[in-house]
Amino acid sequence: MATPKPEEARPITPTANVLKETVSPVTPEKTTEPEASSKDDDPERLSRPRSISRKSSGPLVVARSEPDVKTHTEYPPDDARGMSPRRSSAECEEMTMRTRASIRQKADTLQSGLDAITARIESVRAEYEQLEKNNLALQDYIGGLTRSMSSTTLQSSKVKK
Known about the structure:
Layout: H1 15-23, H2 28-37, H3 43-47, H4 89-160
């Protein structure tokens, strides 16, 4: 495709100039003069983005006489085209087996960790129950000592009177 030259390209004009062209087609020279003078001053033309040039993708049709036809292209690691290669069913099965084995190993590791945590919780619970029993026994003992002390102090105060 050939791009038009700047002289050949028709500039974007405001709608008022378009209406002038349609209303008075008899004098085309007069209608083009305002366009030419507003060519540099038109804010739409100045702010219009330039078209981006692309790299050629090469020929789409390859001649049969070409012996070297490149079918596989190497892509950078972050390119989406290179991220999902086609695999055979044997490769898929092998990947599935490796993934399942890895998941089973991780599950066993997690299960052993959970078993260790459960055993620790049970031992802490048993220690807590033992401490509660000992706490009750100490409270009873202290209560008995307090009562005996208060009774002995009452008796000694009565004897002194």
